[in-house]
């Protein structure tokens, strides 16, 4: 029996409901593989972060890290919920602009923003540029000078804190490609350069310590570290930071072994740590910004697949193959990420066997789950993989020239297609015949 699915997620037919819609009907109407988001869950998640800040009377921004799932519809929902967003490419920025996302609430991240990306950001008047390195300071200075513009900036620093998480997704340790190093004095040097440029309005400092983090310690540590840096900057350079941005990384439950804290608990600890440290250092309380990605969209997403072929070898765990795989969710192959999957027509059906849930891609590593308990399944059955909303569609590929799936938003019993399924024609859309 799956612990994540509660009785209120089942309809009279016993089918899994997503956003009040019958998952089997969604699969039939839109086809599979299909990504479905329960939109109210996205809204609730943003609200629960915001609520803690409001209750503590702290100036803040909940900046959705849109790399987790970027689509026009998603930027619309984030806008409606009063979130900020961060973007990391011209493509994400373009999508946010197409969604009419309030541009002053957009932050632009990235460790190698191109000149064109910075030009686009400045021409569209994005809220904040998160400066990552010295090259960017020069490039941005040139772009601002040419356009006679100015912009709010923050400096990303490498805080030297490594979060306890999968090593592939650590970014906060000293040996990281992101941000200005503290120990060697690079962050101080960057600050001086930015303060010397009247076109760059220095707002504060940023750090991101990793992803899928369960412990408070890392966040408390980074909050403390950033306040220490802020105090040092005040003492040394007379500059007082107005914003402290502790990044994202709040962990979610994928499988029973995951025990994440509630968003409230993370935010509460961060606020407390920053309050305590600023009071000790005699700094005025800054605005606190956070950048959750996974925790906002992960639990709200479901991947629906249809069962196809099967391979049974005596003595080996069977392979049950679905019509998607690493093209729509690379995370199991890339990070050994685990998910839970249920039979959509009867999520609470007793488990009959443990199988390898295989994808259809031509690669042995294309296994969506190594050990999934399932009832008996037949070709044509619809499976729902849970908690797939973060970094699934956004990392999708056309490997083997498979089209990327459609994405549906479901809310209050109504479903809407928000990203169409790629067609075969789409797949050759950019191809040009070679004249040989
Ligand atoms: N802020 C910054 C500066 C980041 O680099 C990231 C994620 C976030 C916020 C959001 O982190 P979240 O709250 O989503 O953990 N593809 C990997 C995750 C890469 C995360 C990269 N940075 C995965 O599928 O697990």
Quick structural gist:
The protein is of the alpha/beta class. It is built from 12 helices and 20 strands.
Task: Give an account of the 3D structure.
The model has no long low-confidence stretch (mean pLDDT 96). This protein has helices spanning 23-30, 39-55, 72-80, 90-98, 115-123, 134-147, 186-195, 216-237, 263-281, 294-297, 331-335, 424-428, and strands spanning 17-18, 21-22, 34-38, 60-65, 84-87, 106-108, 128-131, 151-158, 180-181, 200-206, 243-245, 287-290, 301-311, 319-322, 341-343, 353-358, 367-374, 382-386, 406-411, 414-419. The longest helix is centred in the middle third of the chain and has 22 residues, at 216-237. The strands form three sheets. Strands 3, 13, 14, 15, 16, 17, 18, 19 and 20 form a nine-stranded mixed beta sheet that branches. The protein has an eight-stranded parallel beta barrel with strand order 4-5-6-7-8-10-11-12, surrounded by six helices. Helix 2 (39-55) runs parallel beside helix 9, helix 5 crosses helix 6 and helix 8 packs parallel to helix 9 (263-281). The chain has 436 residues and is an alpha/beta fold. The structure holds ligand LLP. Ligand LLP binds next to helix 10 and helix 11.
């Amino acid at each position: 029996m799956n612990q994540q699915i509660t009785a209120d997620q089942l309809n009279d037919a016993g089918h899994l409901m997503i956003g009040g819609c019958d998952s089997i009907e969604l699969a039939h109407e839109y086809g599979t593989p299909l990504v479905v988001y329960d939109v109210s869950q996205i809204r609730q998640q943003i609200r629960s972060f915001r609520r803690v800040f409001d209750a503590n009377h702290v100036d803040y921004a909940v900046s959705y890290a849109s790399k987790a799932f970027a689509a026009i519809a998603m930027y619309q929902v984030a806008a409606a919920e009063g979130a900020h967003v961060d973007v990391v490419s011209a493509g994400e920025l373009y999508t946010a602009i197409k969604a009419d996302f309030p541009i002053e609430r957009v932050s632009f991240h990235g460790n190698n923003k191109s000149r064109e990306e910075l030009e686009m950001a400045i021409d569209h008047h994005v809220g904040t540029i998160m400066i990552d390195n010295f090259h960017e300071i020069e490039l941005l200075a040139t772009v601002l000078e040419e356009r006679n513009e100015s912009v709010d900036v923050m400096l990303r620093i490498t805080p030297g804190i490594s979060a306890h998480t999968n090593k592939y997704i650590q970014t906060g340790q000293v040996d990281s490609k992101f941000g200005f190093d503290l120990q060697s004095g690079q962050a101080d040097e960057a600050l001086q350069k930015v303060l010397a440029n009247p076109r760059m309005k220095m707002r504060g400092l940023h750090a991101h310590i990793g992803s899928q983090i369960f412990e408070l310690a890392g966040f408390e540590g980074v909050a403390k570290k950033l306040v220490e840096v802020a105090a040092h900057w005040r003492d040394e350079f007379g500059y007082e930071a107005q914003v402290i941005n502790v990044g994202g990384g709040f962990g979610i439950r994928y499988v029973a072994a995951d025990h994440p804290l509630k968003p409230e608990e993370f935010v509460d600890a961060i606020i407390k740590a920053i309050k305590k440290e600023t009071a000790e250092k005699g700094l005025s309380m800054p605005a606190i910004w956070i950048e959750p990605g996974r925790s906002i969209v992960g639990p709200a997403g479901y991947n629906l697949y249809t069962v196809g072929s099967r391979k049974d070898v005596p003595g080996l765990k069977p392979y049950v193959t679905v019509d998607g795989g690493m093209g729509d969710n690379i995370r199991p192959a890339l990070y050994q990420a685990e998910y839970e999957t249920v039979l959509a027509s009867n999520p609470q059906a007793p488990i009959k066997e443990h199988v390898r849930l295989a994808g259809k891609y031509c690669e042995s590593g294309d296994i969506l789950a190594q050990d999934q308990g399932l009832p008996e399944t037949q070709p044509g059955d619809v499976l729902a993989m849970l908690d797939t909303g973060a970094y699934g569609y956004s990392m999708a590929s056309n490997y083997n020239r498979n089209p990327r799936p459609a994405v549906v938003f479901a809310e209050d019993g109504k479903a809407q297609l928000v990203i169409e399924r790629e067609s075969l024609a789409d797949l050759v859309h950019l191809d040009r015949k070679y004249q040989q």
